[in-house]
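Hey, quick one: can you model this chain's 3D structure?
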Amino acid sequence: MTQLKMIRGLVAAALIAASASASAALVFVGSWHVGDGPKWSDQTQIAYSGQEAAALLFGGNASDYSISTISNLVNDINFSAWMDGYGLGITGIFAQNFDNGNLYTPGVRSAYILDNSCSNRYSDINSPCTDQFVNYAFREEVPEPSPLALFGLAFAGLAFARRKV
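Sure thing. Here's the predicted structure for all 165 residues.
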């Protein structure tokens, strides 16, 4: 009975250690230019926040993402997104979850749209803005603890086998 308690204790300790070592981390998943999206010309065009655009492009839910306008490095995340405004001809940086309406109406901003009046800003290879207006998406990924748990269980089994001999 004492050996059984010891095995349970070792298995429990191994599982706790394995799950504790599996911590979540933000990982870069991709980027996009604001102007990569569809044109504002469609009256039913949806305006996206930075997080909504990331979910559309890379899958999952908007709340899964952290957005940056700086770079693809985790330390540079500023929780902001480049957005373009319909009929404003201005691109600016807004909160990653900025949402001032979903549909195509004057003044609405989107992090994934091609502004008709300023499209050369995004597509002209000679434009000084070609490398600007890029949003970088990061998602929290939790490593699977199963390899660590298996290692812990194997260690517990070896300890038990040695004790038995």
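One thing worth noting: The mean pLDDT is 77.
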